[in-house]
Amino acid sequence: IGTPHEIHELGIGSRQIAITWRPPSVTLAPIDGYKLRHSGGQREILLRLDEVPCHAYQSPLILPESFCYTLTGLNPRTTYDIEIQAKSGEMYGPWSAPAIFTTTQDIPVGKGLLEEVYTDTESIKVRWESPSALKNDITYFVAHIRDPIKADQVQKPVNVSSLVADHHFRNLKHSQPYNISVEGGSHGKPMWFISRVFRTRSRAGVCSEYIEAPSNLMIVDKTDQRMRISWSLPASFEDDGNH
């Protein structure tokens, strides 16, 4: 039995961590479950395959073969090492390399909002809305953008006043997922946190929107084994000849 890999965060709260992972690349036995453990007491959780579907989650990190699960009952502002192993009958494969995540501060209010405003091949603009119970208390926001796989900062954190509720991250790579998080606080004390994964658009997708389709497709002549056709270039091209 091989090792599960590519363990990524889908969302983090004060007492829970949602993750996704891919099954072992190579295995000689059918996988019928997974076992998870984390550093908070080394608790082990045995999961059947029907307990780890991804249909309730939304993220560009989720692939057709991915599995998903949310660890609950965790402690706020605590770092956890999470490991996963595959199961086949009574056999277990090796534990995966630990994935490290940190829960947020415990905030007994609503979640708030973080959503995409605009995305192209090199930038992502987001807006956020803190919970109504905290709006009058928050005096600043800090927006972060990280690599969701390595958890590295892609750019320096952006500090904005409580009067600003959006930010445009620029100079990004195309077709890449980015974990964007926003922290709200007052006088240096964090009071609210929200995080989501967004993806920049692919260059191929953008080009297809701006290049018109060829027109006037016609059959010039044909035989049993050959066909000759002609078409006109898009009107925006200088060469209007047939090909």
From TrEMBL:
It holds the Pfam family fn3. InterPro entries: ECM_Regulatory_Proteins, FN3_dom, FN3_sf, Ig-like_fold. Residues 3-106 form the Fibronectin type-III domain. Gene3D superfamilies: Immunoglobulins (2.60.40.10). CDD domains: FN3. Keywords: Repeat. The lineage of its organism: Eukaryota, Metazoa, Ecdysozoa, Nematoda, Enoplea. This is Fibronectin type-III domain-containing protein. It comes from Romanomermis culicivorax.
